[in-house]
Every structure is written in structure tokens, then in C-alpha cells.
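Researcher: Go.
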Amino acid sequence: MIKKIFLLIFILVVPSVCHAAVKGPYNSIEDINTAIGNSVAGDTIIVSDGIYTDPSVISFSAQGTSEQPIILRAQTPGGVVFTGDPANYFITMTGKYLILADFRFQNLSGAETTINLVDADYCRITNCSFENCDQYGGVIEIKGIANNYGSFVGSSTNNRIDHCIFDGCDNVNIENFIVDIERYGCADLGNIHNTFDHLVFRNLNHSAIQIGRGSSLWAGGTRGYVSENATDAYCTVENCYFSACTAQKTIENKSSNNTYRYNIFQNGASGQLALRGGDDCIVDGNFFFENGETSTSDYRGIKVCGSGHVICNNYLQGPDSPMYPTNLSIVLLWGKDDGFYSPVSNVLIANNTIRNSNRGFAFNKGSSTIPPVNCTFINNLAENHSYINPLFGYGYAGTGHIWTANRGHVEKGYLRHSSIPEAGVTDSGAFELTNTETSSWGDWYYTSSYASGTYNANVTDDIEGRTRSNPPKIGCRENNDAAIRPMIKENEVGIQWPNSTLAPYVPSSPSAPSNLQAQ
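Model: Structure:
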């Protein structure tokens, strides 16, 4: 009798244990949502291969852990196709440590967004393809969650979007973006520490990534979401490939403390990485290749507003032919009295290389009235043999700048604007090439036969990861040694499906490292 009583007590006291499992495959939205609702940490939910046109929303709301994420994935990578016209969102992700993998989104239209991350932390979207998705609010949006009074009380942090392709995606509304971090909650509510890596964006007519929203106003402005541009987002965009993206601004930054590094802007309009709002961002080791067959009505390359940015080790190459003049530049904008553009100050521009640009290092006044001040230009290198505009300082540069160890060469036009001190930019004469393939960036660099630059503690390596000497070489490349971090290629990023035009699929479950950072 005692043994029976003990057994009964044990059964009543010890709770049942739910074990992680592989569930499915499921072939209806209803069954998928039911499986998600019943999921526990470590579960993998499989969606049957096929074409899905059901406008119902998949609500991926669950709680995984860093050791046991909950995975929602296609039965076969690329075998599940979502298409049609969903009423609102196609998939919402809410919770912690969730992974969405291996899906294909094709010819979607009308919905606000394809995937909405709402109050999501440590979640991941990986190995997905987005083709001709024309959502009003973009393709992926990251934001907080609203209460019944319209205030945002949650946030989305430490999420990762990686190894995806966005091909031919467009927006009905030009103010929206392909990948968008919502303006609400950027600071106190905290849509922060999100990472975008190894993505491919191609054939886009609108901007690809926006971090922070609102107008580009600074604290002195009189309209727009002024405070949002000063908020800290701590986001990273790295190792992404932008091809034939014709929007004026390929990436638009409207928050502070973000990092843009090791990205490629290639073919057609090279696009623009625009720091339109916010401060203290890093733009490091990016490549811009412009073939010149696009409009020169606006600057391409890197556009700068705000203060405290570090812009270093970038390579910008325009076309050799004067038939296609390009404004591929690092351009500092003047600020406006009405606050439309944040005044530029205390920006470090170091060890960048610009080749064949109509304007090089430029200052764009337009109708603005507040010039850039107190910026440092050090160890930059530029060359121009086809154009006549000043290579350093197109436009009035402003005051209080430091110009040190910059070098360049022009075959036509002017080396520097009269507002730049003569000692700050010197003519090095014609550059040396390692071989005759001058169209390749790697064959053109500032060789050791030229004088070294000036040491700067903020620039410790070069565009391909080589350690900088002290004093360092001028330009983006330190020497011709083997690259530590070679320039990425399009077939090294994006989806990893079998028979893909990109890279072969490696059959392994997506992992969720505890920090969900780029590997």
C-alpha cells in the first residue's frame, strides 16, 4: 500500500516533460499555425513543398531558447512558394529565438509587408528568396508592438537577416523600403542590435535598406520626426551585394551608431549609402563600382549628414570613359536653417580611394546655409584623368577642417578647391599599376614607392583586413599581400539552395548562435 501511495504522489507532483520534435510536413496555413501554437523550444516545423496562395497570415509566435530555437522551414529548400495577394502580412514573427528558413516568396502584391518582425528578439530569417514582391510597406519590417492606445510598448532586438535574395522587389510607396527598421522604439523602446549580412539585392528601383524612419531633420528642425534621427540603433549591414539597384539611395541611414562595412555596390547605378540622419556611424571597407550609364543628377557613393561619423577604407571607382561622367563621390552636405539636413561636423574621412570621379571628395551646398565644420581628411587617395572639376573639394568646403597626407593626381582640371590648404593635398604624379588590367580594383593601389601617410588610431586595418603599418600607406589598401578578408563575390552570398545560380546548398539545419551575429 505504501508503494502505491508513493507512486500516486510522484505522478501528481512530477510534471509531464514536452520533448522537442520535428513536426509535419503541413500543407495548410491553419495546420501550420496550430503546430506553431503547440510548439516547444527545440521544435522544427516543416511546411510541405508546394505553391501557397492562401491569404491567411502565418503567425510565427513562440518562445525558443538560445540552445533550442524553434525553426519553421520548407520541406525542401526553395520548395515552398508563397504567392498571391495577402490582405495584410504574410508572416508575422513574435517571440524569442525563432528561425524562418528556406522559403520562396514570389509575385506578392498588395500586402503591407511580406514578413513583419514585431516584438521579436534573437530571431533569424535565413536562406529565403523574395522575387517581385511589391508590398506597400516593403518586404521585411522590424518594429515594436503597439498597445490599445497606439503607443509602442515593445521592441525588436538582436535579430539577424542573412543569406537571402531580394530580386526585382518594388514598392507602391516610394517612401518605403525593401528592408525597414521602424522608427518607433529606436531609442527608449529599443529596436536595436539587428544585423543584416550576406544578402543580395538586385534589380531594384527603390531603396534596399532603411534603418530608422522620419524626415532627415536635426534637433533644430521644425517638422518631422526630429528625435528619431538622434536615437541609437546599433545595427550592422555587412557583406551584402547590391547589383543594378537604381534608386537614388540604396541604403538610407536615419539613426545613430550603425555600422556599414564590407558591402559591394555593383553594376548600373552604383547607388548611394546615405547618412541622412543620425550621428556616430561607421562606413568601412565598402566597394562602389559605377559604370557611368546612369543619371548624374545626384551624387552617388557616400552622402554625409550629421556628426561623429568614421568613413574609412572605402574604394569608389568610376568609368574610364569621359563619355559617362559620374558623380561617384564622398560628399558632405551643407545643413539647412529649417533643419532639413543635419549639419556636418567632426567627421573622420580616412584612407579612402576614389578613381575616375567627376567630383571626388565634394561639398554640396545647394540651397543650404550651414557649411560642414571641423572634419578630418587624412590619407585619402584620388585619381582623375577624364574630368575637369576639382578632385578634392568640389564646392566650398567649410571651415575648421584638418587636411593631412592626402594625395591625388589629375590629368585635366584641378586637384583641389581653393578653400583647401595646399599642404593638405599634394600631387603625387601618375600612379603606378601592378599590371595592365587597370579596370580591376585590385590591380590599382598606392604602391610602396610613394610616401606613407599619417597614423590614425581609428584605422587599424585596410579594406581587406591587412594590419596597417605605422605610418600607414595612403588610400584604402595597405599593401599587396594576401587579403585577410577578400572582397565578397555575388556567388558567395545569398541563398544556399541546390542548383542555385549562386552557391551550392549545404544540407544542415540553420543554427541560432547565442548572439545571432554574422559568422
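Model: The chain has two helices and 40 strands.
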